[in-house]
Amino acid sequence: PPERKRFYQNVSISQGEGGFEINLDHRKLKTPQGKLFAVPSEALAIAVATEWDSQKDTIKFYTMHLTTLCNTALDNPTQRNKTQLIRAAVKFLETDTVCYRVEEPPALAELQKNEWDPVVAWAEKRYNVAIGSSTSILGPNIPASTKETFVSHLASYNMWALQGIEYVITQLKSLILSMGLIDRHITVEKAVLLSRLEEEYQIRRWGNVEWAHDYDLCELRARAAAGTLFVHLCSESSTVKHKLLQD
């Protein structure tokens, strides 16, 4: 959406029947479809309220990733259920970034092996699955048992968290990197670097395009970080200690 002038002075949260609500002065925030904006945890409400409170003279919607994710979870514009969300996430294994390898140039092939093999090995051990990699354009042959293991694992998350997981996966183009990030095995910076490995290799070889690559890198980090935070805030208890609010 285009930027609009900030129309409120104060941002606060309150608890209602549907969850924790965001108040802009005396108005309750609504979703794009006109639903009451109510989130399942107080910590998430605080984070969203901070996004709104951080806006200056104009509201820059493209900087408000948590608000966008909440709107998606509340409105569910694609009308998918939990099973469909999980299947969509697991389908990314078939085209996972870290599973597709090159043979040429040798330097890039070695870089992929050195950087991607450890995270694939971690995922195989963490979830007790076989994943592998391939230089074929068809990609690796992921066993059905591996997919079903990830289906079972993702089923332990609620609908809100699954929206966040899918969001992170679409940013990184990798289920494996996303789970490593959400499981706190790798940092946001590391996950983004691994997802852009070939691009970073080309930049080191041919040079950076002024401002463009840096902007893309920072924006991808922001989206991956927001998605990961969203998953964690949707997976934890609904309230936080009031001391945290005072701090």
UniProtKB/TrEMBL annotation:
Pfam families: ATP12. Its main location: mitochondrion. Keywords: Chaperone, Membrane, Mitochondrion, Mitochondrion inner membrane, Transit peptide. It is a peripheral membrane protein. GO terms for biological process: mitochondrial proton-transporting ATP synthase complex assembly. SUPFAM superfamilies: ATP12-like. Gene3D superfamilies: ATP12 ATPase, ATP12-like. It is found in: Mitochondrion inner membrane. The keyword Chaperone applies. One of its GO terms (cellular component) is mitochondrial inner membrane. Transmembrane segments: none annotated. InterPro entries: ATP12_ATP_synth-F1-assembly (IPR011419), ATP12_ATP_synth-F1-assembly_N (IPR042272), ATP12_ortho_dom_sf (IPR023335). Belongs to the ATP12 family. Plays a role in the assembly of the F1 component of the mitochondrial ATP synthase (ATPase). Interacts with ATP5F1B; involved in the assembly of the F1 component of the mitochondrial ATP synthase (ATPase). Interacts with FMC1. This is ATP synthase mitochondrial F1 complex assembly factor 2.
